[in-house]
Amino acid sequence: MATNKGRLRFSGVFLASAVALATPASAALFGDSELARQTQALQQRVEALDARLAKLETAMQQNSKLLDVQQEVERLKAEVARLRGQAEVQVHQLDTLAKRQSDLYADLDQRVGEMAKAAAPAAAASTAAPGDAASAAAPDAVSESRAYEAALGQFRQGKYEDAIASFKGFLKTYPASTLAANAQYWVGYAYYALKDYKAALAQQQKLVAAYPASPKVPDALLNMATSQIALDDMAGARKTLEQIVAKHPGTNAAALAERRLAVLK
Asked: Could you give the CA distance from residue 236 to residue 257 in angstroms, rounded to a whole number?
């Protein structure tokens, strides 16, 4: 831009100098009137070039300002996009933490209910016929509950690998337990916590296939969708989330699925 300005200014100066140099030589050829006319014409051309130069300089300054403004707008757009992405990640993390906490409370409520149901028949059996079968059933139920609680305790402490091993051992020892679906869910969730998303997805798919009537199925599907998002399988995640909303309306998992679908669209 500085080079162009210099060239334009040089042109104006050159023309003005030409007018001054031409005056004595032209006087002898054309006379005063003709010389005055030519001088005036040259001066008018110089003035016109000066005006054009001033306009060009103003336009260039304005364009430079517009370019600066445009660059600032683009920078702000990038910053907004970055902040929006961070906000979406934080919302997802909060949803995940809230879901995990609600799962733990729901799991506790279910276990309390199951223990109460198991305690009543055991107490009646021991009162009616205190034989070997009745006395063996109660310790077995207690051992089952303790094994499950120990595995869940490891999960709460962040010992995910230990929790996986313990829950798998629980499933092997107590395959018909009313808490089997829960144990399978926590196996999948522990893999997710370890960021082994493929294993988490496989374990939750196993739950859905083995325990289709379990109330843990919506939660397993939600964890599957979360793993699919982590694996950058957005189409699969949307399909899983839509399945939750369609087949399990009114559940906490369905509400979270709707929120995540809104973010993915």
From this structure: 13
Q: What is the pLDDT of residues 205-257, one digit of tens each?
A: 999 999 999 999 999 999 999 999 999 999 999 999 999 999 999 999 999 99
pLDDT tens profile 127-173: 544 555 444 445 588 899 899 999 999 998 999 999 999 999 999 99
* Cβ–Cβ under 8 Å, residues 117 and 141: no
CA distance 132 to 229: 53
Global confidence as pTM: 0.57
Name the amino acid, one letter, at 247. Answer: K
Asked if residue 134 lies in contact with residue 123, where contact means CB atoms within 8 angstroms, the answer is no
Q: CA angle 148-106-154, nearest 5°?
A: 35
Which three-class secondary structure state does DSSP give residue 73? helix
Separation CA 118–CA 3 (nearest Å): 93
The helix/strand/coil state of 158 is coil
CB atoms within 10 A of CB 209: 9
- How far is residue 224's CA from residue 236's CA, in Å, rounded to a whole number? 9
Bin 159: left if φ > 0, else alpha if -120 < ψ < 50, else beta.
beta
How far apart CA 65 and CA 86 sit, in angstroms, is: 32
Asked if residues 225 and 50 have their Cβ atoms less than 8 Å apart, the reply is: no
